[in-house]
Write a structure and sequence with these properties.
The protein is an all-alpha fold. It is built from ten helices and no strands. Helix 2 packs antiparallel against helix 7, helix 4 packs antiparallel against helix 5 and helix 8 crosses helix 10. The longest helix is centred in the middle third of the chain and has 18 residues. The two termini are 30 Å apart.
Length: 216
Amino acid sequence: MTKEQIFEFFRRLAEDNPSPETELEYGNAFQLVVAVALSAQSTDVGVNKATRKLFAEVETPQQMLELGEEGLKEHIKTIGLFNSKARNVIALSRMLVEQFGGEVPGNREDLVKLPGVGRKTANVVLNCWFGEETFAVDTHIFRVGNRTGLARGKTPDEVEVKLDKRVPEPFRLHAHHWLILHGRYTCKARIPECWRCVVEDLCSFRNKVLEKPKGR
């Protein structure tokens, strides 16, 4: 895509959805870290269902430690990989209490030290809570970046680097939300819904599905 096409790409996504937000539910920075950590290989809908009651009881790392690993498992047992995720959440809660005064750090270097928190999770927290222009490349963004030609790369890190170079102002803050939502609801993995895509003409994907399949 040219610079002009990229600008138009995001202009249309912004016009279609002026105020995009993560679909994960949370009340503070700690709950956001936990929700994103739990969302790996799980749907936001499934995570929200599990965390609504949890977050009504647990708002701080100390409260999570008091709940304990077994108590946490009871809340999140419907989520995939809940055993390992529970261990990580308890471990990151302990680190926050012991090393960061119970507060979520506002920089990537410290965030990725937390158990179960990788670069993608850190980028989500920095963007959604601290308002930084970061690009959290999940499976949806990786697919959309490669399929459309917006940011091609063999790894999420490569796609992130290209997005950082190519996404213009004033779209940088919300870019990753637009791309996630676009991949989740329009540019789907199995059958992209090109027939209703607002950026179809800007996309370089060769096998576009321009007619809605019967029964869909």
